[in-house]
Amino acid sequence: MVIGLILSFFLLTRQSDFYNSLEKINKNKSYNIQVKDAYNERGIYVLNNKYYINSATYVIGNHYGLSKDDAIWRPKDAEYLPRISDISAPFIIKKEIDNDTLTLKKGDKTILLLLVID
Questions:
Q1: pLDDT of the residue at 33
Q2: Nearest to 102 by CA among 63, 71, 57, 64
Q3: Pairwise CA distance, residues 61 & 56, whole Å
């Protein structure tokens, strides 16, 4: 039991160090990121194992079918609101300084997203 507790503590500390090493995409900086790998992890969307953004960052307007709604729990009459975490990599993210709108380009499609400010 003691070995299990020590191993659990070690793994939790290691995972915490990884999350602390990620750079948050925020309003005060500009970005031009070629995203090759992206995954959803505990409320954040990790991009290239270097950046992260809130998983609830909403798509503004048309998502051109690039966002996949695979939720089996959603009631049939509930509206689907696409988020960045519903769009799979690869794609390019661009953002200007002091702007809360992200531009996501995937293939020949451009999607706008509203940055969630925490």
A1: 94
A2: 57
A3: 15
Distance CA 40, CA 20 (A): 16
Place of tokens 């794609």: 91
Strand-by-strand arrangement of the 101-106 sheet: 31-35, 91-95, 101-106, 109-114, 58-60
Please give the share of the chain, as a percent, with pLDDT higher than 70.
81
Using CA atoms, how far apart are residues 104 and 95, in angstroms rounded to an integer? 9
The span from the CA of 56 to the CA of 58, in Å, is 6
Residue 101: both structure tokens together: 């709108």
Higher pLDDT, 90 or 1: 90
Q: Are 63 and 114 in contact (CB under 8 A)?
A: no
pTM score, whole prediction = 0.73
Q: Tokens 């999350």 map to which residue? A: 19
Phi, psi torsion values for 105, nearest 5 degrees: -115, 120
The amino acid present at 67, given as its one-letter code, is S
Residue 14 confidence (pLDDT) above 60 = no
